[in-house]
């Protein structure tokens, strides 16, 4: 037998044996992201966080007490099945692109829609109607309740935060923005 064919066959077997078998795909449905752990328990060390809407490949169909086994680089790791779903939660959202994201703090006045601003809820935007729900990458869901200064362009959101120091720490960032379709 030709030695090249034998080597090729051995390499193919090694590749098949060493490649992880993907059982299923799940999608992260937690706004805060999904923690990857070294054990199937909340006591396991957090290895990383997978962002909202990201696809996760499961290594098998087994349920480890509500946890799934995933391929994490050269290691195996676990994610909680409680924060996954079969369909992409971002499928009903429209990607608006990278927008400028700034922050503001309480001024003592109500928002332009008449409500008082709420942390983790209110944003100001001059180009979207009141009540529009957006998802800001790395931030989460927010609702348009306020308007910003005239200088605020059409691709700019101002996040309401609890205090001025948080706003200063946030600074001026660019993030992907998605509008949630109702």
Distance between the termini: 65 Å
| Number of beta-strand segments | 13
**Into which percentage range does the β-strand content fall?**
35-45%
- What is the CATH architecture descriptor of the largest domain? Beta Barrel
Radius of gyration: 22 Å
Main sheet record: 6 strands, mixed, barrel
Summed up:
The protein is mostly beta strands and 182 residues long. It is built from 2 helices and 13 strands; from the N terminus they run H-E-E-E-E-E-E-E-E-E-E-E-E-H-E. A 6-stranded mixed β-barrel has the order 8-12-9-11-10-13. Strands 4-1-7 form a 3-stranded antiparallel beta sheet, with no helix packed on it. A two-stranded antiparallel ribbon has the order 2-3.
Structure description:
- The chain contains two helices and 13 strands, in the order H-E-E-E-E-E-E-E-E-E-E-E-E-H-E.
- The termini are far apart.
- The protein folds into two domains: 20-85, SH3 type barrels, CATH 2.30.30.40; 93-180, RlpA-like domain (Barwin-like endoglucanases, Beta Barrel).
- The chain is elongated and about 55 Å long.
- The strands form four sheets. Strands 8-12-9-11-10-13 form a six-stranded mixed β-barrel.
- It has helices at residues 3-18, 164-170; strands at 24-28, 34-37, 46-50, 55-58, 67-72, 75-80, 84-85, 93-104, 122-124, 133-136, 140-146, 156-160, 173-180.
- By secondary structure, it is mainly β.
- 20% of the residues are buried.
